[in-house]
What does this fold into?
Amino acid sequence: MSSTLAETAPFARVPFHRRDGRPTLDDLWLFTGSVCNLRCLHCYTGSSPANRTLEPLGRSDVSPFLAEARALGVRQVYLTGGEPFLSADIVGLLEDSLAVAPTTALTNGTEPLERRLADLRRLREVHGDRLGIRVSLDHYEPERHDAIRRDGGGRVRDAFETTARNVVRLAEMGFVPIVTLSAEVFRGNPVPPAHVVRATRDLFAARGARVEVKILPAVLIQGAQRARTAQEPPSTGATEEDLRTTGTDPTTLMCHKSRLVARRGGRCRIYPCPILVPSDEGSIPEFLRFDLGSSLLEAVERPVELAHPSCATYCCRARGTCGNG
It folds into this structure.
């Protein structure tokens, strides 16, 4: 795709999913806030202990969106961040979400999760497999993982062993954790994806835990990755020609069937997906065009313009998705 074409051709637009003529929401994402106990080198949301760009979501914030989601036939709820288990309301948020649909919490698997293991055991006893846990891991080799996972002060820390220990604890409770690896696992490591999946499963099998593995196919040039490397995205958004060239069916894209709720400036707003959210105050203007309003019923009536570089690089070219599949 030439830069001239990207600059002059209109961006492709993705209509929302309809079943029997009615909008139907498959995935509802809840962004619990930008705060995280870690400061990872490639974090596309730039999450850290000091990041307050996206504010914490409380139960009262989420309640009307869960009601709308139920009316739209939601099939899955995801809680992401930041680190969701830093939320004071995380147990209530999980309970409320589970009352509406199967729910997955995404986590770095370190101390915030560890402090909630007893709560997760109780929730699993009530809800069984309706509750899923996705644990991010950047590499199956501890040293490579820990080189990326920095503490709040940006220092290397032994995050790998903490995360691995908690994955095993989750498995002992009956969970089958989904271990999610970023494309950083391939940096300086020229192995096929099947090798990464096998090595990760074997790693946890040796510790007595069964896990599923998901690999995110590309590193997003957003947030900490962009700030750290001064790297600019390789292109603008995706045009209709880009969809044809990459063989992308718009109905397979996240924004065709998902919406995300985030809180900023004291108000909850709807975005198309978990990628198209600001990582800091400076990036807010970049994502204003993806603000779809203040209600899900309003947001599902608005097509999404594939105007961000990540729409082209991650969703169309790399065929990336953020869901469990």
About this structure: DSSP finds 13 helices and twelve strands in the chain. The two ends are 28 Å apart (CA to CA). The CA atoms of residues 129 and 175 lie 7 Å apart. Residues 159-173 form the longest helix (15 residues).
